[in-house]
Amino acid sequence: MIAAQLLPKAEFVHWWFATGFVILALLLASEAIVGEEVWGRRPWRRYLWPAFMFGMGVLMFPVMTFFTSSTIHMVAHGSWAQVMMLAGAAELGLARGKLRSPWWHASTSFALLVAGAAVLVHEQNSWLFERAAFLHHLIGWTAIGCSVFPLLKAVRPRWPAATFGMAATFVAFAVILYCDRDIAPIFGHLSYFAGVPKR
Q: Residues 139-168: what's their mean pLDDT?
């Protein structure tokens, strides 16, 4: 008996990181709902989302090494790894009390700007070339636009709207990454040069 094969093949690496962004969003939303003081009553909870962000940055290095097909993709994944680790490390320093200035939250804003720019630079095709191209443009501009939320957290550290905005940003990343599949049309458009549609 021949087993049926799912086509196109699932983008497991994208889905793993999408799940990571969902976890980040849940942690941030939980902190925003109960408030920073209540969240911090268990000291280990303050380290959850920054440590998870740092860990996702570390895990981006194997992606850069084993799942890239070009130099520009390797540079993009490498830059994402570094800025995710930077943001996670800065937030861990704030949680630990080693860093005191709320302006360290701006490192997360910087990470979103760099990540958004890297996504846009490494996507060589136009918005409607095919679905993956559209989603790359969408996630890049979402990251750049949502970089304002960590800045708001730097200005008003205890303002829950800034934390909710960061959580919503990570939810948006997750949805976009879950939608990413192999060559497929977007809004009825598929470039002749994209290849044979698989979905």
A: 91
